[in-house]
Amino acid sequence: MIKIKPAASVPATGTKVEAEIDPQRVPTHIAIVMDGNGRWAKQRGLPRIAGHRAGAENVRRIVESCVRHGVKHLTLYAFSTENWSRPDDEVRGLMTILGEVIERETPKLHAEGVRICHLGRLDRMAPHLVRAIERATAKTKDNNRLTLNVCFNYGGRGEIVDAVKKIVALGTPVDQIDEAMIERFLYSNDSPDPDLIIRTAGEQRLSNFLIWQAAYSEYWFTPLNWPDFGKDEFQQALVEYSGRLRKFGKTPEQVQTKK
């Protein structure tokens, strides 16, 4: 069960790492590549699907941490368009987990003010899963405490292709197509670009994740597998992010003197 404590009930004191977090420099939007579920299971002599279940359970801790620290958007890379090439039993297991999590957690997340959004394509997914996703997004659409974007059957290149197709279908003149227009047609158009992208399990690449939106994101990598990535590691990522200077093409002097 995901239980998010109201802000007023959060203790004023916490871990030493938490005390180092600058509340004025907490990312608005964090995106996470949840990698290492299979490796986590292998290390324990378990089937890969056990790792995926453990990874799904871990989402609870990170959602709670985002709310605790005032993060407004959380995007999770759950299943890529390339993941369809995995063994059939693993894909079926992932679909089962998705259905279970949606049905179990949507009412609780809704009660806590979390808005659920699906980023990705709905093709190739079973009709009952599509209906579950649509019910979850409709039920929570007016919530504003935290936007939880779940990237399932998602690919960054495919997202851009789909956006361009929509623009072309509208008959938009070429001279009216610019970056702002493309952004309006991306799956993620209701969230700002991610400030911080976290990837677990030691890999250091995007793997077709938010490749348009990540143009100026900060990155943070950890060797921990996703099921082991808890609130302490999350807080460490926030501490390191708060110490970075985001220049967006400017010189350090320009950024530091800007009021």
Give the SSE string.
HEHHEHEHEHHEEHH
Spell out the CATH superfamily. Answer: Decaprenyl diphosphate synthase-like
Domain count: 1
Give me the secondary-structure category.
alpha/beta
Strand content: 5-15%
Distance between the termini: 43 Å
Mean pLDDT: 92
User: What integer value in Å does the Rg equal?
Assistant: 19 Å
**Largest sheet, described in full?**
6 strands, parallel
How helix-rich are the residues, as a percent range? 40-55%
The CATH C-level name is Alpha Beta
Briefly, what is this?
By secondary structure, this protein is of the alpha/beta class. The protein is built from 9 helices and 6 strands; from the N terminus they run αβααβαβαβααββαα. Helix 5 links the parallel strand 3 and strand 4.
Structural overview:
- The chain has one domain (25-156, 192-257): Decaprenyl diphosphate synthase-like (Undecaprenyl pyrophosphate synthetase, 3-Layer(aba) Sandwich).
- Strand 3, helix 5 and strand 4 (146-154) form a beta-alpha-beta unit.
- The protein starts with 15 loop residues before the first helix and ends with a helix.
- The protein has a 6-stranded parallel β-sheet, with helices on both faces.
- The protein has helices at residues 16-19, 37-43, 48-69, 88-111, 127-139, 156-169, 179-184, 231-242, 252-257; strands at 29-33, 73-80, 114-119, 146-154, 196-199, 218-221.
- It has 9 helices and 6 strands.
- Mean pLDDT is 92; it is low at 1-13.
- Helix 3 packs parallel to helix 4 and helix 4 packs parallel to helix 5.
- The chain is globular, with a radius of gyration of 19 Å.
- The protein has 259 residues and is an alpha/beta fold.
- The longest helix is centred in the middle third of the chain and has 24 residues, at 88-111.
